[in-house]
Write a structure and sequence with these properties.
The complex is a heterodimer of chains A (330) and B (250).
Chain A (H helix, E strand, L loop, with lengths): L4 H11 L1 H4 L3 H26 L8 H18 L3 H25 L4 H19 L11 E2 L14 H23 L2 H11 L1 H6 L4 H27 L1 E2 L1 H4 L2 H14 L6 H20 L5 H16 L3 H28 L1
Antiparallel strand pairs in A: 1-2
Helix pairs in contact in A: 1-7, 3-7, 3-10, 3-12, 3-13, 4-5, 4-6, 4-10, 5-10, 7-10, 8-10, 12-13, 12-15, 13-14
Chain B lengths: L5 E10 L2 E11 L4 E5 L6 H8 L7 E6 L2 E2 L5 H7 L1 E3 L12 H9 L6 H14 L15 H14 L4 E5 L7 H16 L3 E5 L3 H7 L2 E6 L2 E6 L1 H5 L2 H8 L3 H10 L1
Classes of the chains: A mainly alpha (330), B alpha/beta (250).
Chain lengths: 330, 250
């Protein structure tokens, strides 16, 4: 059980926040940050552990959001069921795209470009198709209640997204400790060497893509329920693809807590930049961008990578001091 | 002779206009060490890549344990029990030595604990016991060669293809690693090795195949091979054997 202790501790601390903080603005900020953390964790499974840098995770986020919304609005499906269907649709899309792309042997920048193009195609389709509400978007009718997955209190949404984030942390940890995870990391490090050791690289990457897509789609489903509105620019927009890869890269790729830490830091930075910039239009984005460049420059392996490096350096310093002393006595 | 564990039959491989392997046949007997030697560019590594599924042959077949495995992908061949090392070592640089070997041992052990203890055992067998927690990129060249061996061995292969594991090592490192290879063979792993270090080939191999310009030009026991004028010519140039013979005669 020691494997999951850090996750339990982090979740425990985050779970009491709504009991202490009552400001809706703060809670709203945290809900969005956690939602982005979920998107980032989805990306991290494929990109962080598997080394396949997707530039189009909006495809999965948007599919989750649209399926949840459309099933409710057009087909009168229950919201919880719509939520589950959204996740399933995202996973299916991930499986289909993975089978196509990995079977064709696309790697590196080719993989990145294809995913980017795929998300853009979906965005364009969603902006004209009648079922998505085309340019107008899809509005879910306000109808508070547990059954409709709509809550008056931000705290309820906060705990739901926190539970989802918690689940994604556990999934990441389980992958790290499993054979599948060892193989996925091996594929990231050196695909040919992995294949020589019996790893079916394209199958491993495809499975990772399914898990990754499902997690990111869950965040999309949550978006639809939380904001009750989806349009093509939100659901399939480049912004979410960028958030998906930015948060793990800032936090630490291929680590359990990287996306969560990255999302909290990036979102806080964004808000902080707005405060500093005041009314000057666009200045907050310049500050935001500059700080991000700085972070990646100083800590190329993300915040967690940077912290581990510092800890190791300190440990090494201690280790070299102690034996030297002993040797003198001997 | 008994049916060989691994049999390559008239394999031909072309890269565009280049005929890399030309109707080459060889066989590795179970429980023995078989060596594949030949000048640089003879096509040895290409032949290895065909056997291990990384390169498709244009013609010919590969049989393993009596079954036709021609054209199967590398991961499936690894599951059947064919493991290989790479001439240019390919460690997972970002991982520790133990994690590197773990990838191999997971093939036969699904559970992490079992795979970890198997990995540790293999690590000790090849002499990396002290280095298990070190990152792979902290290893010396000799250490990386050992890691390459350990990973392949961790897949618990029936036949192990060693692509120049001794290249780039100094004489004392070679002396250290030769017994390790002999020990694998003693444990029942069939070995097919590409090697340039003739001293090691002479002491290890029971049977030698010589590849030159894509063709198998000679085969036999090591002592027979070094005396073969065709082999000497392949290495030293046409007419070298008679010139050398004449010098000795004088």
């Amino acid at each position: 059980m020691r494997t999951f202790l850090p996750i339990a501790a982090v979740l425990g601390v985050l779970a009491v926040v709504p009991l202490v903080v009552h400001s809706n603005v703060t809670l709203n900020f945290l809900v969005v940050a956690l939602m982005i953390a979920l998107v980032g964790q989805g990306w991290n499974i494929l990109g962080g552990y598997g080394g396949q840098y997707s530039f189009g995770h909006a495809a999965f986020f948007g599919t989750g959001a649209y399926v949840t919304a459309i099933l409710q609005v057009w087909y009168g499906v229950n919201a919880w069921f719509g939520f589950a269907a959204g996740i399933a649709a995202g996973a299916a899309l991930g499986g289909a795209l993975g089978a196509l792309v990995f079977r064709a042997g696309l790697r590196g920048s080719y993989f990145a470009l294809v995913t980017l193009a795929f998300a853009e195609v979906l965005r364009i389709i969603a902006s004209v198709a009648p079922v998505t509400g085309a340019g107008v978007g899809t509005l879910i009718k306000l109808e508070l209640g547990i059954w409709t997955f709509q809550f008056q209190s931000r705290a309820a949404f906060y705990w739901i997204i926190l539970a989802l984030v918690g689940l994604s942390l556990v999934i990441a940890r389980l992958i790290e400790r499993s054979r599948f995870g060892a193989w996925l990391i091996a594929v990231r490090e050196n695909e040919d060497a992995a294949r020589a050791l019996g790893v079916d690289a394209s199958a491993v990457k495809s499975v990772a893509m399914v898990i990754s897509a499902a997690i990111t789609a869950a965040a999309g489903c949550f978006y639809a329920q939380y904001f009750l509105f989806v349009d093509s620019g939100i659901a399939y927009g480049t912004w979410i693809s960028v958030e998906a890869l930015l948060t793990p890269i800032i936090g630490g790729v291929g680590t359990v807590f990287g996306p969560l830490l990255g999302a909290l830091v990036v979102k806080t930075l964004g808000e902080g930049a707005k405060l500093v910039a005041g009314d000057a239009p666009g200045l907050d984005l310049i500050i935001y961008g500059a700080v991000l460049v700085l972070v990646i420059w100083i800590m190329p392996r993300g915040l967690i990578g940077g912290l581990t490096h510092v800890r190791k350096m300190l440990a090494r310093r201690e280790a070299t001091v102690v034996p030297a002393g002993k040797a003198r006595h001997g | 002779m008994a049916e060989p564990l691994l049999a390559v039959d008239k394999v031909t491989c072309r890269f565009g206009g280049l005929l890399a392997v030309n109707a080459a046949s060889l066989a590795a007997q179970a429980g023995q060490i078989t060596a594949l030697i030949g000048p640089n560019g003879a096509g040895k590594t290409t032949l290895f890549s065909i056997i291990s599924g990384f390169v498709m042959a244009n013609q010919g077949t590969v049989h393993f344990a009596g079954q036709d495995v021609t054209g199967e992908p590398p991961h499936r061949l690894a599951r059947r029990g064919i493991a290989r090392t790479f001439q240019i070592v390919q460690p997972f640089y970002g991982l520790s030595v133990r994690e590197n070997i773990l990838v191999g041992s997971h093939l036969r052990h699904r559970k992490r604990d079992a795979a970890l203890s198997a990995a540790d055992q293999v690590g000790r067998d090849v002499g990396l016991g002290e280095m298990l927690d070190k990152p792979a990129d902290a290893l010396t060249v000799a250490g990386r060669k050992r890691l390459e061996l350990a990973r392949a061995l961790a897949t618990e292969p029936k036949v192990l293809l060693l692509d120049e594991v001794l290249a780039g090592l100094n004489p004392s490192e070679i002396r250290d690693i030769v017994p390790v290879i002999r020990d694998f063979c003693r444990r029942g792993i069939t070995i097919l090795m590409i090697e340039h270090v003739m001293q090691a080939v002479m002491s290890l191999a029971a049977h030698v195949f010589v590849l030159a310009e894509g063709r198998i030009i000679a085969e036999g026991t090591p002592s027979k091979i070094v005396a073969d004028p065709l082999v000497v010519e392949a290495y030293l140039g046409r007419g070298a054997a008679t010139k050398l013979g004449a010098q000795h005669g004088r």
